[in-house]
Amino acid sequence: MAMLNSLSGYPEWLPEDRIVEQRMLQIIQETFELFGFTSLETRSVEPLNVILSKGETDKEIYCLRRLHATEEEADKNLGLHFDLTVPFARYVLENRSKLTFPFRRYQIQKAWRGERPGMGRYREFLQADIDIVDSHPLTVQSDIEILQVMGRILSVLPIPTVNLHINNRKLLEGFYRALEIEKINEVLRLVDKLDKMGEEKVKLSLVDDLKLSPNVAAKCVELGKIRTSDGVALQEQVKGFNLSHPLLTEGLDELCNVLTVLNSTGSSNVIADLSVARGFDYYTGTVCEGKFADFPKYPTVVAGGRYDNLVSDRGVKLPGVGMSLGVTRILGLVLHEGLVQASRKTPACVLVALVSEQHRQQSFIIANLLRDRGIPCEVYPRADKYGKQIGYADGKGIPYVWFPSETGDNFGEVRDLQTREQVVADPKTWNPQEDKLRVTVVKNEEVYKSFLNSSKYSKK
Amino acid sequence: MAMLNSLSGYPEWLPEDRIVEQRMLQIIQETFELFGFTSLETRSVEPLNVILSKGETDKEIYCLRRLHATEEEADKNLGLHFDLTVPFARYVLENRSKLTFPFRRYQIQKAWRGERPGMGRYREFLQADIDIVDSHPLTVQSDIEILQVMGRILSVLPIPTVNLHINNRKLLEGFYRALEIEKINEVLRLVDKLDKMGEEKVKLSLVDDLKLSPNVAAKCVELGKIRTSDGVALQEQVKGFNLSHPLLTEGLDELCNVLTVLNSTGSSNVIADLSVARGFDYYTGTVCEGKFADFPKYPTVVAGGRYDNLVSDRGVKLPGVGMSLGVTRILGLVLHEGLVQASRKTPACVLVALVSEQHRQQSFIIANLLRDRGIPCEVYPRADKYGKQIGYADGKGIPYVWFPSETGDNFGEVRDLQTREQVVADPKTWNPQEDKLRVTVVKNEEVYKSFLNSSKYSKK
Known about the structure:
2 copies of one chain form a homodimer.
Chain A: H1 15-34, E1 38-39, E2 45-47, H2 48-51, E3 62-66, E4 78-80, H3 85-94, E5 103-112, E6 124-133, H4 140-156, E7 162-168, H5 169-178, H6 184-191, H7 194-197, H8 199-208, H9 214-224, E8 227-228, H10 231-239, H11 246-264, E9 270-273, E10 286-292, E11 302-313, E12 316-326, H12 327-334, E13 340-342, E14 350-352, H13 360-372, E15 377-379, H14 386-396, E16 400-403, E17 413-416, E18 422-424, H15 434-437, E19 441-443, H16 445-454
């Protein structure tokens, strides 16, 4: 084995941290499936022309090349995907004759970007996406459903509270058109940075760089400052500008509808935030960004929206809406800071001790009887002293140690390492305490509390 | 969206096929965990010097490069991993102070090889590995345990029967040393090809290329032809050569031990096959290859063995044993040929119909009540005629359609699309038939039978 290298931007977890990730993925997958989304995986690579057809992401792409490839080889035109939305759009077009529409899929896969690693930003990361794509126009109800799914996941995961900040591209575009702004996308991108750049800098940039009048720039910024969870208040505030455009009306109605339905169905933490625009050009209606409520300086952990034109090719155009959950980004905070932890380092519930080399068969039999009943266990590999075998179980957090009988007249005894109780037991009938059968994952409330007060991600 | 490209060697499944894959992965994962193996994921990329340190695989490696990278950038020295064993060895060395030994992990991830795609051979494929690595010497019991886990998985998966062909490198090496052969690895590699090349060609190559005497070559081939499931018969046949070497004795004893224990614990389909050697240089003891019993011409679907020196660096040396299941390779046969299929195309058990746009809230409420009770469902997106809504459910194989009441005095009725029964029901208490709640995956016995007789992978 050659020299070791730790690679920045390519996170790897220890076994106990991976258990936290697995538990989160299980919750995510179960919720997606409860809403009838079906799983999809696409290949990790796409032709560069597919990857580069969406947005300004070329600097971030990893290209592939066989080690001994010649210059002419086709492989050099492949790159690793940077998200799961573009590959999904490609997949739908390629397989549309075999799919039933509306097509509802989820996709949990790695993506890669050659960016400089930083706070919550990795070169290899795991995303969990859902999307609905239809061959008919989609109503705003699909946007609501996608938000409901993500809202439900975020409320069930053992992580800090996430607020969903929602907006609507039509509303923004209609507002800008009513103000006779031409560089819509450029204004969108600047307003999207209100949080990071601050009000004054955005205003300055709108005037200096995009040549808006100070009055118009001020209105764009004022609109972007609106934040409310109340549909009626939202209507009033936007109408207060006295601007009129069909897109503005349509977008405002959609946003109010989304807000009202989500509030009425118990999705808390939904906020209309008129600064949210999202970077990608392909969004056409509802857009959303979710951020940790208590750590506003940590980047967005979930995002997405409506795209009516992304899935299109030679006369076919399928509207879609979707959201993407940044699994690695969330773990980057909660695991690095120890906010969440697993109850043990292994799925094993029982360590079956080894009495002596001659008794090995007996340990194997006990272990297999337990496994046949769904109780995960492992056999200690050597006939070490019992103290050492118990120490091994303790170190991994395995709750029970089974000591096979040395005489062989019965199956021996099982010891609860926490209570120190030891009882004669039969692997065909013995049951662990219900809460000890499976490894569990919980918030570490103490660490969380002190982190809340000290964190560089918190509000000043 | 740019022009579509289908890429050879990068398989993608349709939703119903992905469900088969998911179900298989679930069985694999559950079994790994029953044996107390903990999950691990390593990054997809490794420094090229790590990748290239093991065996002759350089031609197959995909290197990474940022699209706009300069020549000097470090990124150009990264490649996608071609298996999960080498990254695992690197991970263990890098983290050995934080791990508890014996370290038992499983790893289910994609790997990439720039090979020419062919029968069961892909450029991107999914592997499921288990390994045990220890800081003490490992006994042959660990080899047996790894084989037990894989044997159990293969017997539970809804796939054609797989035979595990086992051998021992020490046995082969001892045998060759007793014959005073010097090019041990070269002979190993040729004997490993007995199945593909046939007896005569291997013999010829041993004599012509490796300069063995015809007598010695014949003995190597004779040894390689031994196949038996009986430990006693194995001892007799090998001893019949009247050769003696400590490694030969040790290897033969280990192989008999493995065979005897596996037979006695009910692992069927285990065969001592003295032609098996495995390509990689790092194996030092037990080696194993699993092949479909009825499709001997299809390549190996599971493989692995003991490696006592792979995990080593500057004075540290950790023995290990592991096996790798070729998930994509198995699916490449069973999905392509339709031998296995899912009961429906979606996790959804119920389609909640939409009466009219005004009744949408009602459909949402019914769906959420079902979801709260763990029943996966989706709401039809438009107020189409009921016939069309039923047709949609039918097309995806969703077993039930829920019709909300048009008057709103109750929750409406639910229809079983198979029995055509329709009953008044309450989403707070209604239950689907138990076998319809979750999508199931079964062997398609009819297809299987006709494939067995006609397949190009079958025996002549």
